[in-house]
């Protein structure tokens, strides 16, 4: 592992840039130990954040917060993306910040990356591009939120389906109850018709019986009248017979007998003696 000691001034006075040399693929094999000064005096970095930044030959940028700070000295291991391809990194420096606010930066130095065979499977480690890491973290957070929303939607859909099934069941029960009610109403109407018919028949029979009773009463009264008349006639005939008895010869045999003339029976004297 190669360590390069630098003295970097934040005043950025014109000077020949200091150089760091590495080979393609020397990930973490190149360490920069830099003393940070301001106008030649040690720069106390206590409580401040220091970040490595550089512009690669292909135009892409690297920003890495993985810098160790102790007093005015910083130590930094050059990451794989800086030494991923041969070329001269002309702009490299350390930026000083307090929280998210940038307050200073050092003079630039160069990193000369010599040709080499790049190992297979070498990628960009996490933390080398903070903005990218933040974007990835935000994407992961959004993905988690989206997953939560999807689960909420799934639960809501399940609840909706359950409610719909309950509604259909209730509607089926309501329709069945309505059908039963209609059948009961139809039966009630039919029973009412039968009741009215029976009542009408009963009233008719009552009138018939009343008429028959009246007729029977009238017939009985008429018969009684006729019987009374016949009895009166019989009494009159008997009286006449008794009266006539005194005028009849003793050798005569006289009988009382009824003779019918039309619908009326008459009591008469019949002579049945032999002449």
UniProtKB/TrEMBL annotation:
<protein>
    <submittedName>
        <fullName>DUF2479 domain-containing protein</fullName>
    </submittedName>
</protein>
<dbReference type="Pfam" id="PF10651">
    <property type="entry name" value="BppU_N"/>
</dbReference>
<dbReference type="InterPro" id="IPR018913">
    <property type="entry name" value="BppU_N"/>
</dbReference>
<feature type="domain" description="BppU N-terminal">
    <location>
        <begin position="5"/>
        <end position="140"/>
    </location>
</feature>
<feature type="compositionally biased region" description="Low complexity">
    <location>
        <begin position="173"/>
        <end position="182"/>
    </location>
</feature>
<feature type="region of interest" description="Disordered">
    <location>
        <begin position="156"/>
        <end position="215"/>
    </location>
</feature>
<feature type="compositionally biased region" description="Basic and acidic residues">
    <location>
        <begin position="183"/>
        <end position="209"/>
    </location>
</feature>
